[in-house]
Amino acid sequence: MILDLAFAAVALGLVVVLAAGLLAPFESLGWWAGWAGPDDMRAGEATRLRASFAPAAEQPDARVVVLFGINDASQTLRNDHERQFVADLAAALPGARVIADLFPYSAFGMPLNGDRLFAWFWQAVATPSGRLTGLLNAMINLRNFLQVLTSADHRYGPFYNFGLAQVIVEALLRDGHDPARPRPLVLVGYSGGGQLSLAAAGYVQEALGVPVHVVSIGGFLASVPGIDGVARLTHIHGSRDWLQAMGRLVFPERWATMPHSHWNRASRSGRIHTRELEGVTHAGPEGYFGREARMADGRTHMEATVALTADLVRAAVSDPLPCRLPLRARPVVDRLEEALTRRGGR
Hints:
Number of domains: 1
Order of helices and strands: HHHEHEHHHEHEEHHEHH
CATH topology: Rossmann fold
Helix content: 40-55%
Strand order of the largest sheet: 2-1-3-4-5-6
CATH superfamily: Alpha/Beta hydrolase fold, catalytic domain
Strand content: 5-15%
Structural class: alpha/beta
CATH architecture: 3-Layer(aba) Sandwich
Largest sheet: 6 strands, parallel
CATH class: Alpha Beta
């Protein structure tokens, strides 16, 4: 009886995940059409957001936005390693502001346990116990990975990435960003968060008029238009991290045979850099956030990742580089913001 119930629960879970996968692009399109998402985002173009929040009197040296990997179901349901990374990074950068309270696997920032039809299911999956823990966690990973692929898709990606950029812009303005005193912005993305950071960067840079640097930690990166707005992309990868290396194989526009892709143009311009962490895997005890495994110099993997990320943020402060795109809307952004305005006025 118990075994039958377990199989039924697993079957239900697989159906839900499969449905989420098939409908992954439609969540973004539904948000775009005004059928989904919080009401206060419906007319949320950058000009409205700028007027909605008061800038802080004291501005930090830089702002750092951290987007974590595909294992997250909510910005509040994070593991100890992720929380420690944020705390250690903030301690290493006393002059910067570290913002990590975003859920990037939704075009409108809605966590899986938020105001959703299947929120009850994702809440149960996010807090599992017993022998099915690994399988249930895999469901979250699969669902969020499909959102990463949506972001990388040239058909649906612009909708998703514009929405995510809007979520990031609102978080920055809520934190006190002052458009009159722009400071460097660093988007730090781990795993799938690396791709999302890169994809949203161009829209964020155009909206706020600040240099945007992207630090990818084991990111699964595609060639996306957002890279055009990135002042510098630094890809941190472990020597034993084969998952991040799959990006070079899965996305043909990163191949040398496509020299005019966004990625290869950025590479030729010297805006893409790589840094390797010897012996580091993608996840687990020997991953980037490992607290026991040690580098050759005696530091833990967590300490090495934090130190390298902090160095890159300091480099962005000392040499912010100019904005890649002007503080004005390109034609595609014109169309997006016009549609947002129409939708908000319904």
